[in-house]
Amino acid sequence: PSAGELLWDVGAGAGSVGIEWMRAHPSCRTVSVEADPERAARVERNAARLGVPSLEVVHGRAPQALEGLPQPDSVFVGGGGTAPGLLRQCWEALRPGGRLVAHAVTIETERVLIDARAEFGGELVRFHVEHADSIGSFTGWAPARAVVQWCAVKPLVAAVADSAAAADSWETGETS
Hints:
This protein is of the alpha/beta class. The chain has a single domain (6-172), classed as Rossmann fold (3-Layer(aba) Sandwich). It is 34% helix and 28% strand. The longest helix has 16 residues, at 157-172. The protein is globular. It starts with 5 loop residues before the first strand and ends with a helix. Mean pLDDT is 91; it is low at 169-176.
């Protein structure tokens, strides 16, 4: 995150992504969207305990809960990725040059991320984490669920075209 940027943390869970976003710089902001009331309350408690009580929590189900939110500089989708239209709505709301990151731990959400990459570009990465565990009197690695991450940056093309048009009208004195 850069100073002053706004993050939408969609499917916020415990709020860790949005909280750390805000801790990166005092002017960073987060709107966490969480459908589960217990998790939403947990996000609020965690934000207060970790020094970012101004983190905003929206209790609601995305994509409907995203309506009317301020335009984000970045979006993280940690849960709810299979909701119809969610990734498209996040992408369309995102500022040019902004980053959208989504995680999947299910095959169904992984399929959505593969389709999003085909449409919007970006990169897919699969992370595997293992922890040491007992195997009788020995120790071996026990795998956790793999996480698939899709990350894409919204092109600046529209912003560049708008700037060029504005520069042309300035030079010629024409307005559109």
